[in-house]
Write a structure and sequence with these properties.
Elements lengths: L13 E2 L7 E2 H12 L5 E2 L19 E4 L2 E2 L2 H4 L14 E3 L6 E4 L14 E9 L7 E8 L3 E8 L4 E8 L6 E11 L6 E7 L6 E5 L2 E6 L2 E3 L12 E3 L2 E3 L2 E3 L4 E9 L5 H15 L2
Antiparallel strand pairs: 1-2, 3-20, 4-5, 4-7, 6-20, 7-17, 8-13, 8-20, 9-10, 9-17, 10-11, 11-12, 12-16, 13-14, 14-15, 18-19
Organism: marine sediment metagenome
Pfam family, one: Laminin_G_3
Protein name: LamG-like jellyroll fold domain-containing protein
């Protein structure tokens, strides 16, 4: 899946957008961060191919883990997508080996006020369909502290859950897509935009608005809490045990306390597909 362009190699810090002129990788990330905004925004570029930390434009690192704790990227996650020699990687998550990424709890990953909108985005290449729930990104510790979960259902559609307290014991909002399916064995950019105030959720795929969903409310939902739950990529926490694990490749997890516009989602897709060379 690794792609090398024909002709002279690109500088390690530059990428050739479809406009033809090389742009600094950091210029592109500046553009991405301008779109995400400055309030509770984060993205992990995936520069790392080795070690047990992924640094990003975020308040904490992501740690690659399995059920034993921190593990090395090069032995557990098979980093690829070193596209166009610029050092942006995707990582392979094997659901049967408990592989996931985790960031320490931080207020920057919580969107607790009812009026707060937020958006989450990630590049995903699923390799298993029609199975159990597979989490993409979540701040969720089952039975302990639950805030939100963006995941793929057993029906291979996107779903967002928002929790007012502990899942199953208090109020919940659920947004289940019908048209926003995930495509097996294809790398796509999936984005969720929540309007706040228990409003609609918009699901995007490759920069295109696919579906606008209203919530199904369980019990009385008021707002999310800011809990001590850790932020997971490719899984969810279940009392210290990784659960609901994703099977496939993931890249560029990101989020923001902002209801991204359709134009902004489209721009994020365009900028990031240049980074990944797709």
């Amino acid at each position: 899946m690794t792609h090398k362009p024909d002709g002279p190699s690109h500088n390690v810090l530059s990428v050739a957008p479809r406009g033809g002129q090389n742009a600094s990788i950091f210029y592109i990330f500046n553009e991405i961060r301008d779109i995400l905004g400055t309030t509770k925004s984060f993205i992990w570029p995936g520069f790392e191919a080795t070690g047990n930390e992924i640094k990003g434009f975020a308040p904490t690192v992501l740690n690659p883990q399995d059920e034993t704790g921190n593990v090395a990227l090069e032995t557990e996650f098979k980093p690829i997508f070193d596209m166009r020699e610029i050092g942006i990687h995707g990582y392979y998550f094997s659901g049967d080996n408990n592989r996931h990424f985790v960031a320490a709890d931080n207020a920057e990953y919580s969107f607790e006020a009812d009026a707060e909108p937020f958006s989450l985005g990630i590049w995903a290449l699923p390799m298993e369909g029609g199975s159990a729930l597979q989490a993409l990104m979540a701040k969720y510790d089952e039975g302990v502290a639950t805030e939100y979960s963006l995941h793929v259902t057993s029906g291979d559609v996107l779903q967002l859950d928002l929790f007012d307290g502990i899942d199953g014991a208090t109020g919940k909002l659920r947004y289940t897509a019908v048209k926003a399916t995930v495509d097996l064995y294809q790398l796509r950019f999936y984005v969720m935009v929540y309007a706040g105030n228990e409003g609609v959720v918009k699901f995007y795929k490759d920069g295109i608005l696919v579906e606008t969903i209203t919530a199904v409310e369980t019990s009385a939902y008021a707002n999310m809490d800011d809990t001590a739950a850790k932020f997971f990529v490719g899984g969810r926490d279940d009392g210290g045990v990784p659960d609901d694990l994703f099977q496939g490749w993931l890249a560029l997890p990101q989020g923001s306390q902002k209801a991204l516009s359709e134009a902004e989602v489209r721009d994020l897709y365009s900028l990031q597909r240049d980074l990944l060379g797709v």
